[in-house]
Write a structure and sequence with these properties.
This protein has 321 residues and is of the alpha+beta class. The chain has ten helices and eleven strands. 38% of the residues are buried.
Amino acid sequence: MKTNSRSKKATPVTLADLGEDRLVALLTRNLASGPDVLVGAGDDCAVIGRPRAPYWQLLKTDAVIEGVHFLPEEDPRRVGWKALCRAISDIAAMGGTPDHALITLAVSPDTPVARVQALYAGLQKAARRFGVALVGGETARSPGPLFLNIALTGWVERTHCVLRSGGKPGDALYVTGRLGGSIAGKHLDFCPRLEEARWLVSHFKPRAMMDLSDGLAADLPRLAAASRCGYFIDPALLPLAAGCTPAQAMSDGEDYELLFALAPKLAARLETAWERCFPRLPLTRIGHLLHRCLHGTADFSQSLESSLILPPCHRGYDHFA
């Protein structure tokens, strides 16, 4: 006896089936917008303002969740620092300056008051360090793990704003700092590259830039796709954190370093000036952007995928994979 195929219920598509990038693309496809929205979903921050205004507003929201971004036993002061610095790192990636923050905290009623106070001590430390005003927010009861969300505003000069989408074939690709090994504690103690990004946009103006939050193997394809380019990197050139392999440098995530594309004619001058201004922070040229294939996908014949073959678990962080 044959089963009527029409009677079978279709298996629902899950978030794990889609993955993070495809989910975001699906959800943001038809978002309401307005005449002052210069850049919406798809970059490190939203950009709001009039096209010819001297300054634009930046908007960013980011969350840390217990068991996902930190362990329950972590020092809550480090968790508070991380929560605000994650959002500041995105402001930096646009060439901007952070301004005001709203904090949303969802937590179980049996949480010790001292733990919440320590979270705010970490938030305050980051706010003082980077000139952010904590101006309010929301607290709510949660039956699950602690959830801390940051809504951050910032600003950037119109002439200094850098998006992911401005890269051109032949542009040199650079990263700041060293990559990999975030689980050893760097993900809680990192310093967002705010000063360095402001210096970059003032003196050399990268064509495209973003911060590395999900790992180079996940974030570089995003920058290249936004710029309609392919990419080539040499794994032997990657600046590795102590004890890390090239695969870990590309896939561990939570580096919060800058990745940017620069006109190749500026490369030598940038490297000399950087070493003079930031002698303690490495700046490494890791590759370049390429032309896309005629069929519209990145030219992976000379890309990261063929430079170093990685299994699926080594291709950057995906919240839903």
